[in-house]
Amino acid sequence: MAVREESKDGVAVPANAAVEARDLVRRYGEGSTAVEALRGVDIDVRSGELVAVMGPSGSGKSTLMHILAGLDKPTSGTVKIAGTEITELDDSHLTRLRRKHIGFVFQFFNLLPMLDAEENVLLPLSIAGEKPDKAWLDELLGKMGLDKRRDHRPAELSGGEQQRVAIARSLVSKPTILFADEPTGNLDSKTGGEILDLIRDSVDTYGQTTVMVTHEPRAASTADRILFLADGEIVQELHEGSTAADVLAVMSSLR
Amino acid sequence: MFLVALKGLAGRKLRAVLTAVAIVLGVAMISGTYVLTDTIKAAFSTVFTTVYAKTDAVVTGKVAFGNNANSNNLPPSFSASLLGKVRNLPGVAAADGGIGDLAHLVGRDGKVISGHGAPALAFSVHSGGDQRFNPLTLVSGAWPVGAHEIDIDEHTASTAHYEVGQSIGVIARGPTTKYRIAGIVKIGGVSSLGGATMAIFDFPTAQRIFHKEGKLDSIDIAAANGTSPAQLVSEIKPLLPPTAEVRTAQGQAKQATKDTNGFLSIINDFLLAFGGVALFVGTFVIANTLGITIAQRTRELATLRTLGANRRQVLLSVLLEALVIGIVASITGLFLGLALAKGLNAVFVHFGLNLPQAGTVFKTRTIVVALVVGILVTLLAALRPAIRATRVPPISAVREGAVLPVSRFARFSAQAALLTIGGSVALMLVGLFVSGLSTTQRLLAIGVGAAAVFLGVAMLAKTLVPPLARVLGWPATEIGGAAGELARGNAMRNPQRTASTASALMIGLALVTLVSVLASGLKTTFSDAVNSIFRGDYALTATDNFSPISVASATALKNVPGANVVSGVRAGDGKAFGHRINVTAVSGDIAKVIVVKWQDGSQATPGALRNDGAFVSKDYAKKHHLSVGSPVAVEVPSGKRLHLVLRGIFAPPKGGSPYGDVTISTQRFDAEYQNPQNLYAFVDMAGGVTAANTAKLTKALGNFPDAKIATASQFKKNQESGIDTLLNLLYVLLSLSIVISLFGIVNTLVLTVFERTRELGMLRAIGMTRRQVRRMIRHESIVTALIGAALGIPVGVVLALMVGRAIKYPAFTIPVGTLVVFVIAAILAGLLAAILPARRAGKLNVLQALQYE
Fold first, then answer.
1. Which neighbouring-strand residues pair with A236?
2. B309: exposed, middle or buried (Cβ count in 10 Å: 0-12, 13-18, 19+)
3. Residue ranges covered by each domain of chain A
4. Which residues in B806-840 are b (16+ Cβ under 10 Å) and which e?
């Protein structure tokens, strides 16, 4: 188990790397028709860091995230989340790991249509059988600008509001790591910008370690670190302070 | 988590309601059955208790073997001198004797007033004397006095429109006699005893009418102060002749209740079986609906998994959903059962079985059984979809169009299906053919086997759906054009779903086919049998085709000019070789109208029986190792043993024997049976069947409205109508499970329309009209229904073959016409089921449908 220290906001932050992946290979199919989506990827995500994963379609970025999040298993290689090797875990251990350490934000929000905003946010806690912390919930909803939308169903919310509910949901259990899969992919650019600000804000305020897969240069430019994937390998890395133009330049070099 | 299940359910109301219907109807059948039989039982028990309210002990004639509800054999009468001896006992405060017999009342139309299978009772009352033992109460008028007065029951009076002071015909031992209605009565506080008609006479009149001068059928006794009913009974016992018995009034009421309850529990089990079938069909509907729902909720379930839900939570949330549906549906069904009980009663009345009703009885047992069965069945049906739900991988939350991983056993599904069918057929064969099993074991093996056959065929259906849909959908492509083409494709694109939907219908259709094939065989063989043995011109039967008729009616025909032969077949109960048997009796001239094959003996045998002769059927002789010359001892209802000698063995035709197990001579029968009656009589007329002869015979029966004359073909048709009545009753009861399977089709189609919203929008966008969309849904529904028929009808025929072999069924005819009707009915059912889904599909807004996600 990772050594933890309390940040000033009372959010648990692992002291060492939140995610450590070594030599990840993911092969689909067999024999001559086999396709390698990942060909030996190493990646470390330090706690409190926002890492963006970029790459053209088919580069393997989604596969990488699925494996890091324990949704898919690598053909070979290891993934450690909060110090636990996850590639060999069975379903029930993975479930427990998810409850404690992993949060998700999806491209299509994946809210449950029959629950209102507040119920959606609280769902991870109720699944884990934990009592919600009222103050924490209020703070989250306030931060996401959902105070007045608590009892609205997803169908009554705009796309941006739905994604904000999803972000609040992913943060409610204070996960070790948050995976965001194209969080702005289904939103207009203005709303997308607001969502990126919220993600950036949660990293800055709560030290929320986050891995975000995106193909939008602007989205990537908010990250602390940008990893570029092409043909299943990490080909380049940009650091904090890179502009959207820098990102765009790398991206066009990859095409 | 559970909130998700419950709110999800609330958000899919139509789906939940359509799913619940299957359980509601099945549970209603169960609760309705219990309510009906409990109510009837309570009514009978109240009547019997009231009847014996002021009586402490009852002496009655003793039937040698247990009384049979359907028996027309009355207990023997005993000498009236017993009454005096009883009155002299120290423990007796009062005692009175009575006559009880059977007598038909005749309606204003000159026809017998039918009790719909209930008996036509006759009682005596002591009009001028003490009424303390009288179970009857006057509603209007007075007690009957003298030889020309009668009282009748309130129910008959109101249904047949008779009033005090009017004249009514009565058939007792002889032809119709007119009596003046002196009063109208109730018995035990109710107006009708299960639809039985009641004729009440003054005591001496009753003795005379029923030829019971100097005799009694019962004595009601009140104990003196300080004597208990039990003491009373032991005081009376030594006085009794062997043909009489005494019981406390309580014991007598209990005995009477027991007799009726035995009959009612048969009805109860019979109806419960149909409730069981309905629920069984319901499980298919529920499993299928939940299965589709789970498939459509894949992303939702996967999202829950990514949020930390484990498999158990997913499983429990689906089961919770089922539990809620089960509870709500069972409670609804329970109360719907109250209404259904009335409906069932109406069905029975319509088919000729009238049972008494008092206040509705709603027992705790009814509530418990209905709820437990309904909820358990729902949970059981939900188990497989729930397990499937746990196999949804979390990655489906992010991957479009993710499909459920196939089960490890999926590729063996066809083999597993064949294995199931094989095993269940084997189980049925054991139940049907292996000797030495108890009836319960037998029924269990057959029932479980049949259920498993259905399961097996349903499992196999998945494999059969694509080829069947291709063939059965061909007309749709011809009629419906592009819409029909798409409909056929849609029916084939998820074979599992189409298979489950069609399987529910398959069960109902298979059972309907089973009974229709068996009934058809029965009719054919009966008809063949009549053709092979009947040499006369006319048959004399009861107007209801099955009740025994008075000997006097046959005698009346003998006086018709041109009547060469009028020969009756007497019938009564007996006991031989430790078993209840049907005893029949004939005279020599029967040989001129009925010709049977003789294994030993000849057509002369019936005329040579004399006082101690008997003949039996081939099978009966074989069963009891009898040959001509063997002694046969037959016990008659009076308790007397007749020592007979076997004089002949006949080979009855396949379709049924004209004679009972043991046949004796008419002269002996008339001497041993208290009120000899004919089952039927056969007539040979000079000139054969002519309008003139028919008129003459009918005229001769003018005073016998309980009897009618029929030509051979009418006779056959009349007997077949009995089979048809039973058949129709079975159809009505089985229709419940077919209705449930229709809801299954509706359900699947509604869900499918929902699932294909975007696709339907696309079709509309590229130019499909609303009408074409509706047509497409309709054709898919019809193809599904036809697949149900294509599976169900052959299964039904095979089941009929097996059952037919087991009960040594004489003939096996496939009623092609009826089966064609079933196929047409299936098509209509498909059309009906498509109405709602097609409307919904037609109403889709193209733009919204395309944006639908």
1. A228
2. buried
3. 14-254
4. eeebbbbebbeeebeebeebbbebbeebbebbbeb
Confirm or reject contact between A169 and chain B (CB < 8 A). Answer: yes
Distance CA(A255)–CA(B316), nearest Å, equals 49
Is B304 an 8 Å CB contact of chain A?
yes
Chain A positions in Cβ-Cβ contact with residue B300 (cut-off 8 Å): 110, 112
CB contact under 8 A, A104 and B397: yes
Residue B435 CB burial class (10 angstroms; 0-12, 13-18, ≥19): exposed
- With CB atoms and an 8 Å threshold, state whether B306 touches A92: no
Over the range A164-177, which residues count as b (16 or more CB within 10 Å of their CB) and which as e? Answer: bbbbbbbbbbbbbb
Give me the CATH topology for the region A14-254.
Answer: Rossmann fold (3.40.50)
Q: How far apart are CA A231 and CA B162, in angstroms?
A: 100
Q: Where are the alpha helices (DSSP H) in B297-310?
A: 298-306
DSSP string, B677-716: EEEEEEEEETT-S-HHHHHHHHHHTTT-TTEEEEEHHHHH
- Tell me, yes or no, if A35 comes closer than 8 A to chain B by beta carbon: no
CA distance A4 to A240: 25
Are A99 and B308 an interchain contact pair (Cβ–Cβ within 8 Å)? yes
From chain B, the residues in CB contact with A183 under 8 A are none
Q: Which residues of chain B have pLDDT under 70?
A: 64-73, 115-117, 192, 194, 351-358, 400-411, 810, 851-853
Given a cut of 70, is residue A1 above it in pLDDT?
A: no
Q: What is the band of A240 on the pLDDT scale with cuts at 50, 70, 90? A: confident
**Does the predicted model carry a pTM greater than 0.80?**
yes
**CB-CB under 8 Å, A114 with B307:** no
A25's tokens: 């290979």
In the block, residue with structure tokens 């040959």 = B627
Provide the 3-class DSSP secondary structure of residue A15.
coil
Write the pLDDT tens digit of every residue in B31-59: 999 998 888 888 888 888 888 888 899 99
Residue A41 — φ and ψ, nearest 5°? -105, 130
With beta carbons under 8 A apart, name residues in chain B contacting A123. 1, 4, 304, 307
In B52-141, which ranges are continuous DSSP H helix?
81-87
Distance CA A153, CA B370 (A): 38
Cβ partners under 8 Å of residue B88, min gap 6? none
Chain B residues with CB under 8 Å of A211 CB are none
